[in-house]
Amino acid sequence: MGIAAAAFLGAAGVWYWRTVPERTQLSETKEALGDVIYRVRCSACDHEFEEPAASYVAKLGREGMPCVKCGAPKAWRVGEAGDDPAVFRDEIQAITTTDDLRISIRTAQADYDRLAAEFAALPEGADPARRAEMRRQLAGLRAKLQALHIRWDELADGGH
Ligand SMILES: [Zn+2]
User: Fold this and answer.
1) 85 C-beta neighbours (distance < 10 Å), count
2) What is the DSSP letter of 105?
3) Which of 57, 63, 15, 1 is closest to 32 using CA atoms?
4) CA 48 to centroid of ligand 1, rounded, Å
5) How many alpha carbons lie under 13 Å from residue 109 in its C-beta half-sphere?
6) Are the C-beta atoms of residues 132 and 37 closer than 8 Å to each other?
7) Which of 92, 98, 74, 103 is nearest to 148 (CA)?
């Protein structure tokens, strides 16, 4: 592939990387925490679990919320449900050419854009279970795109 195309994709990746956290923050401050689920990890026993955001906030003490496994009040939010990039590691490491990777990035970005538009069109407060599931999928696609862009840098560096 041409250098110009690679540079373009790289720039698009940087643009994406910078704007996503802002979008997320905006939507989080605008909405109630009702349909947000956090990924929480205990610093005492390393157990990771999910906790609805409103419940997490209610249970949060000085050193964290109580761990559901060991009971120590040392569990902290590490992300949003579904956003763990480790989930995609094997799938993405199996991609070995920039051509295949470009297709994967375009597909994941199109999925994200379509789902984000669908989510934005949902009336607030309606169908919380569906909103929670869509948030989980959006968080998963954000994590996947991050992992794909990291892979892009790895493959692009090796291809010079
Ligand atoms: Zn624990």
Assistant:
1) 17
2) H
3) 57
4) 8
5) 16
6) yes
7) 92
Q: What is the Cα–Cα distance from 135 to 147, expressed in whole angstroms? A: 18
Tokens 């910078």 found at: 18
* 32 to 8, 40, 53, 71, 131: CA distances (angstroms): 37, 19, 10, 28, 12
Q: How confident is the model at residue 118 (pLDDT cuts 50, 70, 90)?
A: very high
**How far, in Å, from the CA of 56 to the mean position of ligand 1?**
15
For the record, the structure tokens of 155 come out as 């493959």
CA dihedral sign, ordered 59, 64, 66, 67: positive
For residue 40, the cross-strand partners are 49, 77
Tokens read off for 18: 């910078």
- Ligand 1 is an ion; its neighbours by CB within 5 Å are 42, 44-45, 47, 67, 69-70
Of 80, 76, 82, the closest CA to residue 28 belongs to 80
Max Cα distance, the chain (Å): 55
pLDDT tens-digit profile of 53-105?
999 999 999 999 999 999 999 999 999 998 887 888 888 999 999 999 999 99
Token pair belonging to 48: 């990771």
Q: How far does the centroid of ligand 1 lie from the alpha carbon of residue 36, in Å?
A: 22
